[in-house]
Structures are given as C-alpha cells and as structure tokens.
C-alpha cells in the first residue's frame, strides 16, 4: 500500500494486485476503510485544466483589428497635442477590454460550472453490495464494474473481462478501440499495449469487466500528464464567427474610408491635423464597439435560461444552432414515453394471458388461461432471473435501480408468486452476457452442484426466435417451434403499442461455467412472450404538435419493434393522420435501411417519421442523409454507440439520467430530465436568443452608419464636424450598455414557435433588415447634421451645436430601441411594461445625457456645452419621428 505508484500493476497476476491493495474481489472495501483511504489518497479528481492565464486573457481583449484602430487613433491624437481626447479614447479601449474580459470570464465560468455539475458516476462494490457512487469517492482497492458506455473512473487493473473494448484516444491518441483481457504482461509493455489495465477517462465501447482501482486523481496516467479531456470551453458560435468575418471586412472598409476622408479634406486645403481628427472620428464612429460584449452576454443569458428549463448546454454554439433546427430525431423509450413499464400481456404454451395491476406495485393477477402451465412459469422465471435490476421499497416509494424493462419483468413474476432473489438462491447465476443494443438480447447461465447448467435468454422477438428450435408446452413437454404463429402473436401485442420481449432457455453441457454468444446461437427452447405498456408522455404529445406548428419535423428512432413504434407514434401524432392504426403507419425498419443506397435513403429519411429496429450505427447514416437535404438536425442518444451520430448531428442531445458518459461527452446539450418536451423548450429558448441577438445588431448598426456618414458628409461639404471622436465614443459605449443590452431581457415574442425555422445558410441580415438599418442611419444623418447646422447658425457655438447633435443621436437611438423590441410588431402590441429593464435603461440614459450636457467636468472631457430647452425638444422630435418612420415601414411590410 505504501508506494502504490511505483508498482507495475500490469506485470502482476490479478490476485496479486488484489492482495497488494488489501481488498476483496467479492466484497470490495468496507465503507470505513474506503473513508480512511480517501483521507490518505485524496478525492479521485483532477483539477480542471488551467487554460489561459487571466493576464493573457485580458491582453487578448486588445487583440482585435477594430481595437487596433482605436489604439492607433488614441496614440496619434496624443501626438497631435490633444491629451484629453487621447485619454478618452484609450479609456474607452480599456473599459471595453475590462467589460469583455469580465463577460468572457462569466460565460466561461457558467459553462464550467455546468460541466462540473454533471458528475461521473461509477458502479462500485462496497461491503458486498453494488452501488452507484460519484467517481470522486473512489479510492485504491475499490472494486469497480465496467459496462459499455461507461467512462473509466480511475486507473484499474482488470480482474475479469468479457469482450471488453475501450476507446483510449483521450490518453493515447489511438482512435480504434483496444481489446482488453486480464493476463499479466512484461514490464516493458508501453501504456497503449497494457491490455490488462483500464485507464481513467477512457471510454468502454463494448463488453464488461471488473477491475480494482490502483490509482486515483492526480496519480492516474491522465492526471499525471494533466491533460484533461476536452472541456466545454469553446465560446465561438456560427454567429460570432460571422460577426468576426464582418468585423475584418469592416476594418478595411473603415480604413479606406478614413483615408479617403483625410485625402479629400487635405486636397481641399484643410489643415492636415483637422482632417486627421475627422478620419479618426469616422473610424471610431463606424466601429460597433459594444457588439462582441453584447453577443457574449446575450448567449450567456440564453445558457442560463435553458439550464433553468432542464437543458444543459455543453457547447455554446448549440444555443444558437438550436433556434435553427429543422428536424428533431428522438429516441422513443423514456424520451417520448414515460419509461414506466408494466407487463399487461403474456403468451406461453400457446395460450394468451392478461395481467392486471399498474406500475411497479406487485398487486395484480395473471388471468385468462391455465395458471399451472409450466411454459407460463418458466417464461416468468426467465424474466426474473435473466435480470440485473432491483426494485427498492422505502416508505411506500418504489425506485427502480436498473432498467425499467427489467423491473416490469420482476413485477410480473411477483404477481405469479415468483421472487427473483429466492429464485437466484435456488439457481445461482454462473455467468452473464449483458444486453447490448446491437444484439438485442441478454443471457444468464444458472446452475450448481448436481444441477445441469441452463442458460436463460430474453430479448427482442426476432433474434430470440431466430435462435430457437423448439418450444415448451404447458405440460412441460417440448414441441417443434411454429415461428410464424409466435410472430403473429407478438405482432398482435406490438400493434397495441406493447413492447414485446421473448424468453427462451437452453441446457448447456454439464460443467459449463460460462455462456458465450456462440453457445446460444441456435437450439434454444422458446418459452413465451411478455408484452409491456409504456405510456407516451402527455407533455411529449403537446411538444410534437408545437414542433409541427414551428415547422420542425419530429422523427422517432427506436430499437423497438416496428408495430410497437407505429402504435406509439400514432398516439403521439407522428407520421400524419394516416398513422392512426399501426398497419397504416409508414415505418422504415433498420433491415430495410441496410439495403438502401445513400440517395434512396436520403429521400426515404425525409418522408418517413418513424424508424424502428434501428441499430445505433444506422442513426449516423440517418443524420447524414437528412443533412444532405440541408436539414439542421438535432438527434438524441443515450448509448455508447450513439456517440458518432450525436457528434455528426448539428445538435447532439444526450440523456442526463439514462445516458452513458460516452453519449454525454459526444453531445452539445444534455437533458437533465430525459424528457422530449425539454428539447422543445430549448428550441424555443434558442429561437428567443437568436432573435434578441439579431435585434441588438439591427438596433446598433444604424448608429455606426449614421456617425460614419455624418463625418463623411461634413468633410465632403467642408463643414465643421458635427460630432467629435470622443463624443462618438460616448454615444457608442453608453448607449450599447445602457440601452442595447436591455434587449437581452426581451421576453420571447408570441408566435415564436409558429414561425418556420431560420435558414442557417442565409446571411445574418436579410434585405428588409438592411433596409431598416439604412433608413435609421439616414434619419440620424439628416437630423444630426440638420440640427447641428441650425444650432450653429443660431448660437454660433460649435460646442453647443455638437451637444445638440449628440443628443439627437442618443434620443433617436433611445426611441428606436422601442422599435427594435420586435421585427414586426409595435412596442404597444407587445405590452409597454413587459421589458422593465428597457424602460429603466431609457430613463438612465436620459439622466446620463443631462449630465453630459450640463456637468462642467463632462463639458471639459467631451467638449460639450449646456444647451437650451428647445434643443431637447428638437432632439426628441427627431426620436419620435424616427420611431414612427420605422413603425410605418413595419406596417408597409406587413401589408
Ligand atoms: P429507444 O431507442 O427508443 O430508446 P429501445 O430502448 O427500445 O428504443 P433498445 O434499448 O436498443 O431500444 O432495445 C431494442 C430491443 O431490445 C427492445 O425492443 C427489446 O425487445 C430488447 N430489449 C430492451 N431492453 C432489454 C433488456 N434489458 N434485456 C433484453 N432485451 C432487451
């Protein structure tokens, strides 16, 4: 125990490793001992990767082309002997960097906290019972059970392995899964070839195993190289990337225009210093300084709104992509249905039975046929023995530990007086072939001294019948199997929406202690069928119809039988009206998909809404087929084999409760409640977020356009500049934060889920929005230039005239903010009081503007000057006129 890390665990025999770690493979550690070791070795956790240092992240805020222009402008203004202006410009750059830094830190922190809240769990043996514990609680000597889909929680020496394969790419970079076994290896074996070890943070892709924890936390291989698997830290989204590209374009356009302004002025004989200030003003004005910070804030608000509704965003771009989803591919069991299984129908020994009772309550009876039938009791026994699930009862509450399908089988057996734990004592289990969705069955081997070993198999009807040769009759005698009759019976159950499982058995040669897929590949004795209901979730029904209104197609993809899928699909309103009865439903099965060329599948995938008996690999083909048609696809998944499809989908959605670690890691979003309706909520939030982003952009750009134009026009006409660089900065910074950001709190517009999905291949701004930006930009130009000249003529003071121009800008923007609350409706239609942040922002902005105008300190800094009351009325007039012009434009569009 002392020098754990120096041990070459891979060179030891498994029992030696157990002995060195003072553990017990059958019982695991005792809780007190585990606690003692935890204190000694510390929790099994690796501190998240450090990432960039705060200083570096702060400095990176200056690393933006538009900021270079501002920095350049600041330094040159200083060189020209305008220290106040220079300080203001550099001050703004600094404020911008601080705001950007804080926002980025906040968004990254929120994502990190969400990522941390998703604890990895492990199945651990402690004092003889299997428990699910957070991976952090593991300590050397713990005995851990691994199944496909698990993330290996610590470094393990494997004690027993069955067909175990692990994806070790996180550690070794090797992308193909590695096969594992338990034999000792030579000392020189490199990490990637240590087949008898399983390393922390790698993923089990197939099979099962037990292993003993040899090192935890920072002592694990991954901890030592402290290279944590990819954290969700990408803050770029398709929109931010488009904005970045736009900024780069803007940079050159602004530089060219500023140079033009400078040259035009100088050629007209104006002083070069003045013209330089004009060029600076133009550059400063045309840069939307507040845009990057606003985008991050709005996205971050979206992330927390979604989290509040049960959708955890792992990758920020998903917030935005969700709003544009056109197809949702969802699992059936547990997502569209309640995953509350109850066996209601049985078939054994050529007789059909009904089962009464509800849920996991063992009250209920089996009725309708010969109750002493051996086929019946063997069907129920098979269901109870070939089962890894337990139902815990505490205080009248029943909780399923394991799989609800298996829980239903336990309850059905109980109704006939068969208790699974008693049966397991009578027929101890020797070996298990775990359920894997690509095989669709599970098998267990039972036997003891003096008893012939018997394998019980349960699974989907097709694979079990395909392996069966005979059937058991009610009197216990075997008979040849009439597969067609059993299929007909299974179909009758499935078309009522029942999930049907078939049970079979096979005696293995005496002395057999293990069961393999080969042992049960033929010669099974069919015992009977159990059919269970799994009611659709009522909220899923509403969500499906809401998606339909939103122009988003819902497709159900399930491993279940075609008729079961069709019956449930019909109840949920999938597949149109024709799908009222299972027979009329259009269902595409995995078997048919397998024979289809890609182009045929592309057409079929678009026209079909129900996919049954689909294996996980086919999900990937389906996603790609839909994407080839230009669809934006959200796909749910829970198993390890779903990971490739989740990665391929535009939005991979993993189940928070029932999902494997592998699925979660591959996903963009996690549903905390595994509920389909949560996807709908997330799509709705996604649309709201995108709307608000767009509203901010459409609100902010006219200001930049107006400012750029007013400078350009003044220079071309040889007039005095109506606004100075520092004044432009004042306008841009204060209005973006005080006014613009309040749009982030804009409630979702009514009818958000009645629109068609946004086309992601279209530019951010359509023609209509560009026209609106130009309209408001033109109003700003006319009003500011006009009122500036008017004030200059009447007062003769440039400072006063400029103050009026600034007030015009601010007031027009403030009123335009109300227009910007909706692209189509007026603020009054939305309800005037529904965004109080916005009203507060409006009032605060007015106060700031009064200070800007009358406070001597502000006058000194911003070259402003007190103006008369009439000038305020003029500015307000411009604002109100602008408001009505935009409302008029909206009305014209609406027709
Ligand atoms: P979905 O993809 O909608 O969640 P599903 O959960 O039904 O569908 P799978 O888990 O792949 O899909 O199951 C496929 C089939 O395997 C089921 O229809 C059932 O017949 C069988 N099956 C499911 N669970 C078990 C189990 N624990 N043991 C044996 N067979 C099972």
From TrEMBL:
This is Putative cation-transporting ATPase F. Belongs to the cation transport ATPase (P-type) (TC 3.A.3) family. Type IIA subfamily. Keywords: ATP-binding, Hydrolase, Magnesium, Membrane, Nucleotide-binding, Phosphoprotein, Translocase, Transmembrane, Transmembrane helix. It is an enzyme of class 3 (hydrolase). GO terms for molecular function: ATP binding; ATP hydrolysis activity; P-type sodium:potassium-exchanging transporter activity. The keyword Cytoplasm does not apply. It is found in: Endomembrane system. SUPFAM superfamilies: Calcium ATPase, transduction domain A, Calcium ATPase, transmembrane domain M, HAD-like, Metal cation-transporting ATPase, ATP-binding domain N. GO terms for biological process: intracellular potassium ion homeostasis; intracellular sodium ion homeostasis; potassium ion import across plasma membrane; proton transmembrane transport; sodium ion export across plasma membrane. It comes from the Bacteria. GO terms for cellular component: endomembrane system; plasma membrane. It comes from Fundidesulfovibrio magnetotacticus. PROSITE patterns: ATPASE_E1_E2. Its EC number is 3.6.3.-. It holds the Pfam family Cation_ATPase. Residues 8-82 form the Cation-transporting P-type ATPase N-terminal domain. The chain crosses the membrane at residues 58-80, 86-102, 249-269, 275-301, 696-721, 727-745, 769-788, 800-818, 838-857, 869-886. It is a multi-pass membrane protein. Coiled coil: none annotated.
């Amino acid at each position: 125990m002392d020098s754990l890390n120096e041990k070459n665990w891979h060179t030891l025999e498994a029992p030696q490793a157990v002995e060195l770690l003072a553990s017990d493979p059958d019982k695991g550690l005792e809780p007190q001992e585990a606690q003692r070791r935890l204190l000694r070795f510390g929790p099994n956790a690796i501190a998240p990767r450090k990432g960039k240092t705060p200083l570096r992240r702060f400095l990176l805020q200056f690393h933006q082309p538009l900021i270079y222009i501002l920095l350049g402008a600041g330094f040159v203004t200083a060189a020209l002997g305008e220290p106040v202006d220079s300080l203001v410009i550099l001050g703004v750059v600094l404020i911008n960097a601080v705001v950007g830094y804080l926002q980025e830190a906040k968004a990254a922190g929120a994502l990190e906290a969400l990522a941390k809240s998703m604890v990895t769990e492990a199945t651990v043996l402690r004092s003889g019972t299997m428990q699910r514990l957070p991976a952090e609680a593991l300590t050397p000597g713990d005995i851990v059970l691994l199944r496909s889909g698990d993330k290996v929680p610590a470094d393990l020496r494997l004690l027993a392995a069955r067909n175990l394969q692990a994806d070790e790419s996180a550690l070794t970079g090797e992308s193909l899964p590695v096969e594992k076994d338990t034999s000792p290896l030579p000392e020189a074996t490199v990490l990637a070839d240590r087949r008898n070890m399983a390393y922390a943070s790698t993923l089990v892709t197939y099979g099962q195993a037990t292993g003993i924890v040899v090192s935890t936390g920072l002592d694990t291989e991954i901890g030592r190289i402290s290279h944590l698997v990819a954290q969700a830290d990408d803050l770029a989204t398709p929109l931010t990337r488009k904005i970045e590209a736009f900024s780069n374009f803007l940079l050159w356009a602004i530089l060219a225009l500023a140079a033009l302004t400078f040259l035009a002025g100088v050629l007209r004989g104006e002083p070069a210093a003045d013209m330089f200030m004009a060029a600076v003003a133009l550059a400063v004005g045309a840069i939307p300084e507040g845009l990057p910070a606003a985008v991050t804030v709005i996205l971050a608000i979206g992330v927390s709104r979604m989290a509040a509704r049960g959708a955890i965003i792992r990758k920020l771009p998903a917030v935005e992509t969700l709003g544009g989803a056109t197809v949702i591919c969802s699992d059936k069991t547990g997502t569209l249905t309640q995953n509350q299984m109850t066996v209601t129908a049985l078939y054994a020994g050529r007789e059909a039975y009904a089962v009464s009772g509800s849920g996991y309550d063992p009250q209920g009876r089996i009725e309708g046929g010969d109750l002493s039938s051996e086929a019946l009791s063997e069907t129920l026994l098979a269901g109870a023995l070939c089962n890894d699930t337990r139902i815990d009862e505490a205080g009248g509450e029943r909780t399923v530990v394991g799989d609800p399908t298996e829980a239903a089988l336990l309850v059905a057996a109980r109704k006939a007086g068969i208790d699974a734990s008693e049966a397991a004592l009578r027929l101890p289990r020797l070996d298990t072939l775990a359920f894997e969705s690509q095989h669709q069955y599970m098998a267990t081997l039972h036997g003891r001294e003096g008893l012939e070993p018997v394998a019980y198999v349960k699974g989907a009807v097709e694979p079990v019948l395909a392996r069966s040769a005979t059937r058991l009759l009610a009197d216990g005698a075997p008979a040849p199997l009439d597969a067609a009759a059993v299929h007909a019976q299974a179909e009758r159950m499935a078309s009522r929406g029942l999930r049907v499982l078939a049970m079979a058995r096979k005696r293995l040669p005496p002395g057999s202690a293990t069961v393999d897929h080969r042992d049960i590949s033929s010669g099974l004795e069919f015992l009977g069928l159990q059919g269970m209901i799994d009611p659709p979730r009522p909220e899923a029904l509403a969500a499906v119809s809401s998606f339909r209104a939103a122009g988003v197609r819902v497709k159900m993809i399930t491993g279940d039988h075609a008729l079961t899928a069709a019956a449930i699909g019909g109840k949920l309103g999938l597949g149109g009206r024709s799908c009222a009865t299972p027979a009329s439903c259009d269902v595409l099965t995995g078997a048919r998909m397998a024979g289809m060329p890609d182009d045929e599948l592309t057409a079929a995938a678009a026209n079909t809404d129900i996919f049954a008996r689909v294996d996980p690999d086919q999900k990937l083909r389906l996603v790609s087929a839909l994407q080839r048609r230009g669809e934006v696809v959200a796909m749910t998944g829970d198993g390890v084999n779903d990971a490739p499809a989740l990665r391929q989908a535009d939005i991979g959605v993993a189940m928070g409760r029932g999902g494997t670690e592998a699925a979660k890691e591959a996903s963009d979003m996690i549903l905390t409640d595994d509920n389909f309706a949560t996807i709908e909520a997330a799509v709705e939030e996604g649309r709201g977020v995108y709307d608000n982003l767009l509203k901010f952009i459409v609100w902010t750009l006219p200001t930049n356009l107006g400012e750029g134009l007013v400078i350009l026009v003044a220079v071309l006409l040889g007039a005095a500049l109506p606004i100075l660089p520092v004044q432009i900065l004042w306008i841009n910074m204060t209005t973006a934060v005080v006014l613009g950001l309040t749009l982030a709190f804009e409630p979702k517009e009514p009818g958000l889920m009645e629109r068609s999905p946004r086309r992601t291949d279209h530019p951010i701004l359509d023609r209509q929005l560009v026209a609106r930006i130009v309209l408001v930009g033109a109003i700003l130009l006319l009003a500011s230039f006009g009122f500036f000249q008017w004030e200059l003529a009447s007062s003769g003071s440039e400072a006063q005239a400029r103050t009026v121009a600034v007030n015009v800008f601010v007031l027009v923007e403030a009123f335009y903010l109300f227009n910007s609350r909706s692209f189509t409706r007026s603020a009054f239609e939305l309800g005037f009081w529904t965004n109080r942040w916005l009203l507060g922002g409006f009032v605060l902005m007015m106060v700031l503007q009064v200070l800007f105008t009358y406070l001597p300190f502000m006058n000194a800094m911003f070259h402003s000057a007190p103006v008369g009351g009439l000038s305020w009325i003029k500015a307000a007039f411009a604002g109100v006129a602008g408001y009505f012009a935009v409302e008029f434009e909206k009305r014209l569009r609406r027709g």
